[in-house]
Amino acid sequence: MPLPPSARPAQTPRGQTAGTAPALSPAAPPRLAALRVIVALMLREMSTRYGRTPGGYIWGILEPLAAILFLSVGFSLVLRTPALGTSFLLFYTSGYLPFHLYQSVSNMVAASVRFSKPLLKYPAVTWLDAVLARFLLNGLTGILITAILTAGILTVIDSRTMLDLPPIIEAMSLALLLGLGVGVLNCALSGLYPLWEVIWSILTRPLFLASGIIYLFESLPQLAQDILWYNPLVHIVGLMRTGFYPTYTAAHVSPLYVLSVSLILLTMGLLLMGRYHREILNR
């Protein structure tokens, strides 16, 4: 006679003995595993990029400092005062540092897949991990360098400048986002078309002169303003300077324009990388 359902013995799952708790899966959650991979890639780049040269991170500070000093000394010989304020050092610091942050992030992100290509053969490491690792490492490094140089220069020139942090933070954030967008798109294009890296380096050589680092946007002729307005770095540099000079009103700055361009470039880059990353890795 069959037993009623309530009287039947409980079935034990396959691979589990009665009276024992179910075994926990040894695999880490996907998000935690991805985070561990990104941190490992960041540590690897720190050791290879900064750990093998004497001075390490000191060179990361000396490079932008040398550029600022060169601009300050050079233009102080031909000009009496900078376009804003009385300190050449402060004027070129406010213009060069956001440009340097953008350039560093975009260049490093663009080469992220090529740099980590041997590791991308492992299933646990993806192209997105390589991109995020380089973006985070170089972004944090650039922010730290900016803070150190700004504090040091303000101390040296004995300036009573009161920094307005919100526009400075906004400018640095936009520089990071623009660098990420340009970097991801260039990562895809240079992977698909190796000649693109050479073409891009040629196209962007005048970028330093076209970004408003050594002059004010308002001092240009109207025709030049109409053309250069479409350069997102002009907006970033102008926004950065409003945080250093409270009396400076950069009417041409449009954070929404920079945000839109950055997100469009980033979306295009992510779509291309998602579609063609296997082809890029197999080249």
How does this structure look, described?
The protein has 283 residues and is an all-alpha fold. It contains ten helices and no strands. The protein has helices at residues 30-50, 58-76, 88-110, 112-115, 127-156, 165-192, 196-203, 222-228, 232-244, 255-281. The radius of gyration is 26 Å and the shape is globular. It starts with 29 loop residues before the first helix and ends with a helix.
Features of the shown structure:
64% helix, 283 residues, 10 helices
Concise structural overview:
The chain has 283 residues and is mainly alpha-helical.
Structural class: mainly alpha
Tell me about the largest β-sheet: none
Strand content: under 5%
End-to-end separation:
70 Å
In round numbers, the mean pLDDT is: 85
The gyration radius over C-alpha positions equals 26 Å
Question: What are the secondary-structure elements, in order, as H or E?
Answer: HHHHHHHHHH
Question: Low-confidence runs (pLDDT<50, min 5 residues)?
Answer: 9-26
Number of β-strand runs: 0
Helical segment count: 10
**Percent of residues in helices:** 55-70%
- Quick one: overall form? globular
